[in-house]
Design goal:
Layout lengths: L9 H4 L7 E3 L22 E3 L2 E5 L7 E2 L14 E9 L4 E11 L3 H6 L2 E6 L2 E2 L7 E8 L2 E13 L4 E11 L3 E2 L4 E2 L2 E11 L15 E6 L6 E6 L25 E7 L9 H4 L3 H9 L5 E5 L11 H17 L2 E11 L1 H12 L6 E5 L21 E6 L7 H13 L4 E6 L14 H9 L3
Parallel strand pairs: 4-6, 5-14, 17-18, 17-19, 19-20, 20-21, 21-22
Antiparallel strand pairs: 1-9, 2-3, 3-10, 6-10, 7-8, 7-11, 9-10, 11-14, 12-13, 15-16, 16-18
């Protein structure tokens, strides 16, 4: 069964996938259902109970609502569809909805549609929120998608309800399907689960991942203890042998900083991130790994309070576990890679190596004047040539400036990759071999 244009194509829900590109600007008019004179609509950054409805950003979403509450089936005739689902307790979740049509059909469809959105019985002023556009190539033609991205912040545990609807008085042709006049509504009853709790950070000798809470920093974290070597998954894995864990010797430490989509998530969600998943399946890697959960707005890892917590957590783990303090590396992707550049530059004496994936320094993008402070710290960067939110030249400029100081820095460009299509990097044995050899 095909999915409705109402709740978009899979490419739209992950707009950084290869083959998708964003358009600047927004439509001049947002067709919404007019309120009655007595109604008060919730505007951007307004609240419904304890929940704040913030303007989202297509390039820096929280976890997507539809990842937990799946699409409802497409209908070509007016319908009131319902669904129920559960969400883990998170600091924020991004709700994305709108319309997808052929390039020549989008504007005419949009002009004849009136939209409404309600959360927990309160009506939202969609005209106060920006929309985003994405182009999806489909053979010789393009599909255009126009969507709202609304961040729901602070959803409390318990039952919630939302209703998203559009209506038209005329027949609509999206270029791939026709829709009869009437009201199309999706009502979702969803339950936010109670927050997860974790034991205090302590010493463990059991290999694998552990969930902890650092009482010193207030951070939740995944901590990985090296496992015994396992047979290679494929012959290609033999090309770059990785030093194995030696139980009697201090181990190198990796601090891994996640991207924007994992802000404020429970550890059960962070465990599904690509880096953590790949690390769990590798087996035999010699590193202790610490992956804390951060939260906040843009460039959250570079905020003073969170930077200090990361450094405190690094020290706490180093005092509790047999860490080789001369071999501490910092890695991250997206906004986590921004944290890698900022934290690394401010603490070159702490880190033996930096590994940013799709990284940058600050926003607006910049090459800091003191970039040469990093010349004694090797840097290996990775970037997608089709990253539309952080162009590859942004990180290349950092690498070039550092190299000009005599630093050991280079970047591997993956020309056909976007920001979200670089997970294969974490399967790169050469990368782990390189990290294992770095030392102060």
């Amino acid at each position: 069964m095909k999915k409705t244009a109402f709740f978009l194509l899979s490419c739209l829900l992950l707009p950084l996938l290869a083959g998708c590109s964003a358009l600047a600007g927004e439509p001049n008019a947002v067709p919404t259902i007019a309120p009655t004179p007595t109604e008060v609509l919730v505007k951007a950054n307004g609240s419904i109970g304890d929940t704040t409805l913030a303007q989202g950003n297509a390039g820096a979403p929280y976890q997507k609502f539809w990842s937990y509450c799946g699409f409802l089936p497409d209908t070509a005739t007016p319908a009131e569809l319902t669904a129920a689902c559960e969400l883990p307790k998170m600091s924020g979740v991004t709700l994305e909805f709108g319309w997808t049509a052929r390039e020549l059909n989008l504007e005419s469809n949009w002009r004849n549609m009136r939209w409404s959105f309600e959360l927990d019985g309160a009506k939202v002023d969609l005209a106060d929120f920006k929309t985003f556009e994405v182009i999806t190539p489909d053979g010789d033609v393009n599909n255009f998608s126009r969507t709202w991205n609304i961040d729901l912040l602070g959803l409390t545990p318990g039952s919630h309800n939302m209703r998203i609807a559009w209506q038209s008085d005329v027949l609509l042709n999206s270029g791939t399907a026709t829709y009869q006049p009437g009201v199309y509504a999706h009502t979702i009853d969803f339950t936010v689960l109670e927050p997860e709790t974790y034991p205090a950070l302590s010493l463990s000798t059991q290999p694998g991942f552990h969930t902890f809470h650092s009482e010193k920093t207030g951070l939740d974290l995944l901590l990985y203890i090296p496992q015994p070597p396992s047979p290679p998954a494929s012959p290609s894995d033999l090309a770059q042998p990785i030093p194995t864990a030696q139980p009697s010797q201090p181990a190198p430490l990796i601090i891994a900083l996640h991207g924007s989509e994992y802000r404020g998530v429970p550890l059960s969600v962070l465990q599904k991130s690509v880096f953590v998943s790949e690390l769990a399946t590798q087996g035999g890697l010699p590193f202790i790994v610490v992956a804390p959960v951060g939260d906040g707005g843009f460039e959250f890892w570079s905020k003073p309070a969170l930077k200090e917590k990361v450094l405190q957590l690094t020290q706490e783990v180093s005092e509790l576990y047999p860490v080789d303090t001369k071999r501490i590396s910092l890695m991250g992707d997206g906004m986590g890679a921004n944290g890698v550049w900022v934290l690394g530059l401010e603490n070159p004496e702490t880190f033996a190596a930096l590994l940013p994936v799709g990284g940058y320094y600050g926003y607006p993008f910049d090459v800091p004047k003191n970039i040469c402070d990093l010349k004694e710290v090797p840097v290996r960067a990775f970037h997608g040539g089709k990253d539309i939110f952080v162009p590859a030249e942004v990180e290349q400029d950092l690498i070039d400036a550092l190299s000009a100081c005599g630093g050991d820095a280079n970047m591997t460009m993956h020309e056909e990759s976007t920001a979200n299509s670089l997970p294969f990097i974490y399967r790169n044995n050469e990368m782990y071999s390189w990290l294992a050899l770095q030392s102060k």
